[in-house]
Structure formats: C-alpha cells, structure tokens
C-alpha cells in the first residue's frame, strides 16, 4: 500500500487543477504547469481535494501511485509558493557574478564558467558567494542547481567548492607528513 499515494492533496484557494486524458494541468498565481501522468493511475478532483487511486496492486503500479501524487503535489506547491535553492561558494577567490542574462562563475579554473538564464527560472546573486535559483518547477530548479554545483563539487580535504546551503561536507584528515 502506498502511504504517499493515498494522501489527499488539499488545494489552496487560488489554485485550479484540471485533467484532460492523462495530462494534468495546474494553474495558480505564479503560473501554469502541465505533466502527463501514468495511465494506471486515476485522479479525481473533489472540491478542494485531489485524490489518486490505482487500478491494480502490482509493484510498478504501487510505485507510480506515490510518485504521481508527489509530482502533482509539487506542481501545486510550485504554482502557489514556488521553489528556491541556494548555493554557497566556499574557497579563496571563488565568486559568482550576474550580468544581464548570464551567470559567471570564477571557481579556480583558468577560465570563467558561464550559464545562460533558462526560461521559467530566476537566478539571483545577492553577494559574490551566494547564488539563489527560484522558479515554479521543482525539477527545473533542482536540475539547474545540480548543474551549477557540478562545476566544482565540494572536495573533502579543504571543503572548497560549490555546495547547497546547509549541506554538510564530511572532511578527511589528509596525509600525516612522515
């Protein structure tokens, strides 16, 4: 039994959910998101609640039940509140700068690394060591944050690199010197 799939999604007052075939569309004050759901999962909107049911109890359908409910819940949260990921740059000389629609990272390479703005996402640089990515799609926000972090992932000896805010990097001791 999928505990997540059986949970009911309660819609905020300004969010509207509709379904056309297997495509679910969620409209809210921040925008509109659409996603195709699996045909084995059925969705029903009853007032301000969204309920998901599955047609069989095989393992794949059980997994799809919880995943589909979680994806639609993220869509509802995204169009009503939005998602934000914050990245921190740790290292001597590491810095980020935003000019126009381009994010430029200086993270110890012989050249700066550039990222172009993506549609539906907002990238802000409040200071030289912080990058804030926000948008209505949790997947797109997480993907861009992971791409930026992959430029210089935190290393375990000095802890230098790009890390998520609140991420804990386990440090290693290094050589003893003898």
UniProtKB/TrEMBL annotation:
One of its GO terms (cellular component) is ribosome. Residues 12-82, 90-164 form the Large ribosomal subunit protein uL6 alpha-beta domain. It comes from the Bacteria. The keyword Aminoacyl-tRNA synthetase does not apply. Keywords: Ribonucleoprotein, Ribosomal protein, RNA-binding, rRNA-binding. Coiled coil: none annotated. This protein binds to the 23S rRNA, and is important in its secondary structure. It is located near the subunit interface in the base of the L7/L12 stalk, and near the tRNA binding site of the peptidyltransferase center. Part of the 50S ribosomal subunit. NCBIfam families: L6_bact (TIGR03654). Belongs to the universal ribosomal protein uL6 family. This is Large ribosomal subunit protein uL6. It comes from Leuconostoc holzapfelii.
